[in-house]
Model the fold of this input.
Amino acid sequence: MGATPRWFVQLLPWTPVEAGVYRVNRVIDNKFAVQCSPELGSQLPTAFIDYEPKPREYLLNTVSTTVQVSTRISDLYRSPMDQVKEQLRIVVERLKEKQEDEMINNGSYGLINNVHDLMRVKPRNGRPMPDDLDELLARVWKEPAFFLAHPRAIAAFGRECTRRGVPPATVTLFGSPFITWRACRSFLATSSTWRQQDRHPPAPHRRAASRCGRSVSTRAAWRGLAQACQCA
Done:
């Protein structure tokens, strides 16, 4: 059985980092005047662009573990499956899953926790709808690369599109079908990287949500969808 496909890391743009530190330079004062076709000899406005004195720095982090394999495992359990190879495969899979989890949910540099308040979108009816995704796309000042969403959010969005009679188109990437919306390249479904509380909310919350007609997991996933688009 092969490893689970990891599309998220493959779709993200990567930036080379020297000395293991990535510094974010932000302008704190760019309010200055400019003139168009000034008259000869006229006094030109003065521009002074100031940056943050202590910019934020991102340090490269590593994900590591230790595999302990007894010698009797390699000697006795080599056929029909190489147990040492299988254990290494499982460890590599877990490392990749931890990498995605940190990139999405880390409290310091995770995508969800680093979205500006102006880029947050609240769904109109509690579940992701085409109108909400249009509003989300309108706030992205860069060309959006892809949507990152929980599988339940994708399913809820697909049901709403079907109800309205506007089924989203699909494209094939890495040999798998992906849903698209407004020419935004794809939805990326990932369930293993979302925090446990989003996937399995406490029972009282599930019962309360059922009375409201929607699930807490879907709402939590929609928050992640709305917050992660700009970072992607």
Observations:
- The radius of gyration is 24 Å.
- Residues 196-232 have pLDDT under 50 and may be disordered.
- The helical segments are 7-11, 71-76, 83-105, 130-139, 151-164, 196-199, 203-212, 216-231.
